[in-house]
Amino acid sequence: MAKEELIQFEGLVTEILPDARYRVQLDAGHEIVAYTAGKMKKNRIKTLAGDRVTVEMSPYDLEKGRLIFRHKDERPSSSGAPPRGGAQRGGQFRRR
To answer: Nearest to residue 48, comparing CAs of 8, 80, 14, 72?
Structure first.
């Protein structure tokens, strides 16, 4: 294994910690602390507790990692409200 090789795991964000860090429960059962990768910060990708993520780790320190991808979930909206952006109100706000 070369020095630069990184290991990728998938897991679930269980807790949001200070300083843009996250506690992640890996599918293998281990719990690690991870930070957000620069590309995710640049593209303003937000990560919440309960999100599925891919974590990149060094083989030398298996307690820390870097979030490199947030998997999209098809979450049903719990509020029951219509999706934002497409709803039009009645005629009272329509321009003529």
So the answer is: 14
Give the residue numbers spanning the domain of 28. 7-70
Q: What pLDDT, in 10s, does the model give residues 58-91?
A: 999 999 999 999 998 765 555 555 556 655 556 5
Count of domains forming the chain: 1
Residues 6+ apart with CB under 8 A from 15: 22, 23, 49
- Count of CB atoms within 10 A of residue 15's CB? 12
CATH number of the domain within which 34 lies: 2.40.50.140
- Kind and range of the H or E run holding 41: helix 38-42
